Amino acid sequence: MARVLRWDVIIGLLLVAVFAGGALGSPSFATAGNLSFALGDLGEIALIALAMTMLVVAAEVDLSVASVLGLSSALVGALWDGGMAIETIIPLVVLTGALCGLVNGLLVTRLGLPSLAVTIGTLALYRGLAYVVLGDKAVARFPPQYTALAVDDVPGTFVPYPVALFVLLAVVVAVVLHATGFGRALFAIGAQEQAAFFSGIRVKRIKLLLFVFSGTVAAFAGVVFTLRYGSARADNGLGIELAVIAAVLLGGVDFDGGKGTLGGVIAGVLLIGLLRNLLMLNDVSTEIQSIVTGLLLIVSVLTPRLISLLRPVRTGTSALKGTP
Amino acid sequence: MRPMRLAALTAVLALGVAACGGTTKSSVTSAPAQPPASSAAAAADPDAPIKQGLKLAFLPKQINNPYMTIVAEAGAEAAGEFQGEAKEVGPSDASASSQISYINTLTQQGHDAILISANDPNAVCGPLQQARDKGIKIVSYDSDAAPECRDLFINQASSEEVGRSQVQLLAEMIGHKGEIAILSATANATNQNTWIEFMKDELTKAEYKDMELVKVAYGDDDDQKSFTETQGLLQAYPDLKGIISPTTVGVAAAARYISGSKYKGEVVLTGLGTPNQMRQFVKDGTVEKFALWNPKDLGYLASYAAAALVSGQITGAEGETFKAGKLGERTIGAKGEVILGPPFTFEASNIDDFDF
Questions:
Q1: Which of A20, A35, A126, B27 is the most exposed, fewest CB within 10 Å of its CB?
Q2: Which top-rank group of organisms is this from (chain B) (predicted)?
Q3: Residue A3 lies in a domain
Q4: B123 Cβ under 8 Å from any chain A Cβ
Q5: Among B336, B310, B341, B350, which Cα is nearest to B82's?
Q6: What is the CATH number of the domain that holds A202?
């Protein structure tokens, strides 16, 4: 019973329902063109969500990801405008992202500051740096072979290249998170940090790594974003940290740490994206779209609580075991 | 440790590749520009009838913006005149990328034409091209998309006309005499700076020899900053006779300051403003006249232009003409631009005809 009621399973089923509903009710929904676009539109959020899932499982959060994306985009623009080769720019920018993550991680682990506070600070800081780098300008005209790489589908499919890359990375993260000692360490840290520490897990080292990974992925997402839109701007990706966190939440990852599955998060990302796409195709106004997404989120937080309240009643004895 | 090592490895590999030479800005820009995808092959037939039942979609910078809504409503009214329909959809925020998914949706829904006020000329380019590949005509209005990604741009007013007419408007009210100042938006706002250049050029003419531009101030399109900048201007230049603020935020903030100060009735303020923001200042006598294009005409013209494109009356080439209902015949200028006309002057007698 408990197994069936798991929230990530419910989200997965909801996703299937939305897809089936869309395919039946809206002729242009389940077409290769539309799906390719809808998936491509989720690429950056999905990529960042991978790193965010690991952080949230370890009871940390990184709110600066969208700003790192913006800084990365601004850097791509400024360096490209300055005549540097795109092949040099991309690794440089991704390294900068790793550095941004390192700063977050050091502040959290070495100074013991809460990640919420640290990354709210760097959210403003990195976005500010992005404006310092590029100002109000927009840089465009990137090499077509690279912009095509950010938009085009893998031949014979409706999966854009960035999404294919996401799938590969998702497999790696899923294995790391759910089938390795490192992954188990993350859950242990999230569930009971002190216990994890005393059982020999290098808590600080692992957290530092997670922040570096998060910054790296966000910066890479910034490169994808810039090439996909063909426009480098300091305000690119403004606010998408909330979309990422919404997807992680919707996917059933517990914000107190220690609980969650990557599958749930991926289903969460897809659910938000496809639902929005479907609502748009049916000319549902932007306001209603926000209301639907908002309600879905509240339900996603509420339902697991309700389930855990109901469960002791059903099984009788487990209430005595004092599961929190 | 694994993610770190992976990242480092990728970085090293990529840098290695980069060292073997790469793609730079100069190697891209030196490549021949893509020819415009507009159907230059299809000849225009100026006498073709406007097709019935056309489906047009207005995609403004953002919805719930009164100005944009008026444009789209006027567009729908025009569409009604030729038995078509027009709807307005769009994002709730005006960020560069927010329009993209709407372009995709409109493409999937199979509209005849998309009319867009682009938030970012380049970010919308790719999706607009995809729409055109499916035979959808693209008309930009208010804020242009990159020219190679649209068929026509309905320009609300030429920069030159805006700049010169602002000076003319002010000169007329201060009797062509005295110190004047400009309150602009940000120091690097492209449109504002172009207008200011034309204002300066206009001021070099003999008829303005007694007028002197003493200062260009920047209110950054921020209400509070524009308010304080106005205050600063008036204190620094006690002989100031007039202020031009070619930005809706600036002119409203300046009017608010002047209306509550001793300068009311002494210093003439004009600029580009919206009737709703300026109404009370026109009524209380702070501002006599200000200008802006007429958004109703903008939407109306955009709709007719889209219909003419879809019906094959025009292809978007320079010199072609089409009939735009009550606005009469219009000619396509260079770079596929159709100019709406000179800015419209709002004053006490007509301001109540407008609600935006």
A1: A20
A2: Bacteria
A3: no
A4: yes
A5: B310
A6: 1.10.3470
Interface of B with A in 38-67 (CB under 8 A): 63
Substitution target from B2, B17, B23, B119 for chain A, most A beta carbons within 10 A: B23
**Residue A209: which of B4, B90, B108 has the nearest Cβ?**
B4
Q: For residue range A30-86, list pLDDT tens digits in order.
A: 998 899 989 999 999 999 999 999 999 999 999 999 999 999 999 999 999 999 999
Q: How far apart are CA B266 and CA B285, in angstroms?
A: 11
Phi-psi region at B39: left, alpha or beta (left = phi > 0; alpha = psi -120 to 50): beta
Task: Report pLDDT for A297.
Answer: 87
Query: How many angstroms separate the CA atoms of B124 and A76, rounded?
Result: 19
Chain-chain contact of A37 with B104 (C-beta, under 8 angstroms): yes
Contact by Cβ (8 Å): B114, B303:
no
Burial bucket for residue B181 (CB in 10 Å: 0-12, 13-18, 19+) = buried
> DSSP secondary structure string, A166-197?
HHHHHHHHHHHHHHSHHHHHHHHHHH-HHHHH
pLDDT at A322: 43
B303 contacts B79 by C-beta, under 8 angstroms: yes
The encoded tokens of residue B312 equal: 């094959």
CB contact under 8 A, B126 and A141: no
pLDDT above 70 covers what percent of chain B?
A: 90
Give the pLDDT of residue B79: 95
Domain assignment of residue A193, yes or no: yes
* Mean pLDDT of the region A143-153: 89
**pLDDT-flagged residues of chain B (< 70):** 1-21, 29-42
Q: Hey, what are A170's tokens?
A: 């998702």
Q: For chain B, which domains are there?
A: 55-156+295-340 (3.40.50.2300), 159-292 (3.40.50.2300)
Cβ within 8 Å of A, B 321-340: none
- Does A108 map to a domain? yes
A216: closest chain B residue by CA: B7
Q: In this complex, do B95 and A276 lie within 8 Å of one another by their Cβ atoms?
A: no
Is residue A215 in some structural domain?
A: yes
Contact B14 A91 (CB under 8 A): yes
Q: How far is B348 from chain A (nearest CA, A)?
A: 36
- Of A11-15, A87-91, A168-172, A299-303, the least confident: A299-303
Return d(Cα B232, Cα A312) in angstroms, integer: 69
Query: What residues make up the domain containing A266?
Result: 32-304
Cα gap A48→A299, rounded to integer Å:
23
For tokens 């370890």, the residue is A58
Nearest partner of A271 among A57, A39, A63, judged by Cα: A39
Closest CA to A160 of A220, A226, A228, A76: A228
Q: A219 to each of A226, A252, B203, B221, B322, how far by Cα in Å?
A: 11, 26, 49, 31, 49
- Taking alpha carbons only, the member of B306, B341, B311 closest to residue B57 is B306
d(CA A275, CA B170): 53
Q: Provide the pLDDT for residue A323.
A: 44
Annotate A131-150 with DSSP letters as a single string.
HHHHTT-EEE---HHHHHHH
Separation of alpha carbons A76 and B103, rounded Å: 25
pLDDT of residue A107: 97
Give the pLDDT score at B12.
57
Structural domains counted in chain A: 1
